[in-house]
Amino acid sequence: MAMHVSGACFSVFSGSRVGNIKAVASEGFATVKTAEDKVKLGGSDLKVTKLGVGAWSWGDTSYWNNFQWDDRKMKAAKAAFDTSLDNGITFFDTAEVYGSRASFGAINSETLLGRFIKERKQRDPEVEVTVATKFAALPWRLGRQSVLAALKDSLFRLGLSSVELYQLHWSASHESVFCFFFLNFLDKQLLINCLPWIFRAGIWGNEGFIDGLGDAVEQGLVKAVGVSNYSEKRLRNAYEKLKKRGIPLASNQVNYSLIYRKPEENGVKAACDELGITLIAYCPIAQGALTGKYTPQNPPTGPRGRIYTAEYLRNLQPLLNRIKELGENYSKTSTQVVLNWLLAQDNVVPIPGAKNAEQAAEFAGALGWRLTDEEVNELRSMASEIKPVVSFPLENL
Q1: How many domains in the chain?
Q2: Buried b (16+ CB within 10 A) or exposed e, 291-328
Q3: Domain housing 83
Q4: Which of 81, 82, 151, 237 could form a disulfide with 116 if both were Cys (CB 3.0 to 4.6 A apart)?
Q5: Is 126 part of a structural domain of the chain?
Q6: In a domain, 330, yes or no
């Protein structure tokens, strides 16, 4: 999923050193009814459910949950986790920068997911849970060892000895550019003094981080590796570097939805299809904007309200009305229609964020049926009339 800077500033300090851990996320037998309900992740041997669940909002107080986290919201997230498993969805995506233990009673998303897994296994030891998490290319992290150290901290928070998928959350160049503009705003002389460090982080950080992914595979800490928010050029470079070690690049996680199709326009989707890399789609329902829940009179609250404004939602209404009509034809909700649209693109695994049991159950209803090609094309044509919102600002680097 996405990275929210203010959340990242807190949660990276929440991990402790990894200890002796017994549990493994993939232990047990599948709860999915048939093998056809799973897909291989890129060229790896890892199979995941065709639709996963994003845990970006779990424990977060910097972007989601109206800046508050409490026991009621934790129970709702736990219900979302259990309901997903009950409906055969076993793939969960988190990150070390999701959630925080340092503000407003929040908690790290990895910690929550680990707790949910442990509690579920206590009553259902054979349940399967496939875990994906992500490494944050923070300014002070350089080289392959930083990847392994961060991974071990993530494993500690998760309470696992390995995870199925480990991803680089964004490239080192992203944080270098962020630092450049931030320091330029604060003090130009400070920027000049820091330029050698910024250059080193941006150029050499990516090389070392990719090496770190390969090391994690070879040490048995992960089954597969991927990247996130990577442009076509950086995606190809990462693919080739790992290929030299005989390790497939399994995935690239990017913002992708019916109203945000930048991966189709910037070559990322085509490169994924060509190289056999699965595209994991975060924000597949556009943070709720495509569900029909929000209207010009009832926009989303918090930071999302500054993105999906009343004016934007007004322009979105014709598309939302058509989505609703199609859903009624299939006895499906608007949410299920837009997720099915993504599934129809092939080589795409959407990971909508589930905050409660009702949402998790609804997401499962996107599986087991398919829009016609004519309907898929009609929705694309209507969506092309809508100006996309700004996503992760550095995704083209």
Answers
A1: 1
A2: bbebeeeebbeeebeebbeeebbeebeebbebbeebbe
A3: 5-288+345-369
A4: 81
A5: yes
A6: no
Q: What pLDDT is recorded for position 177? A: 44
Q: Out of 63, 98, 260, 308, which one is annotated catalytic?
A: 98
Residue 321 has pLDDT above 80, yes or no: yes
Q: What is the pLDDT of residue 224?
A: 98
CA distance 103 to 7: 9
- Kindly report the three-state secondary structure assignment for every residue of 26-58: CCCCCCCCCHHHEEECCCCCCEEECCCEECCCC
CA angle, 243 then 245 then 249, to 5°: 40
CATH of the domain at 154: 3.20.20.100
pTM: 0.82
Answer yes or no: is 383 within a domain.
no
Instruction: Tell me the per-residue pLDDT of 124-151, one tens digit each, with 9 for 90 and over.
Output: 999 999 999 999 888 778 889 999 999 9
Q: Which residue has the tokens 């009621």?
A: 72
How is residue 309 written in tokens? Answer: 């404004």
Helix (H, G, I), strand (E, B) or coil at 331: coil
Placement of tokens 């065709």 in the chain: 50
Q: Indicate if the pLDDT at residue 183 is higher than 70.
A: no
Query: What percent of the chain stands above pLDDT 70?
Result: 76
Which residue is listed with tokens 């890129």? 42
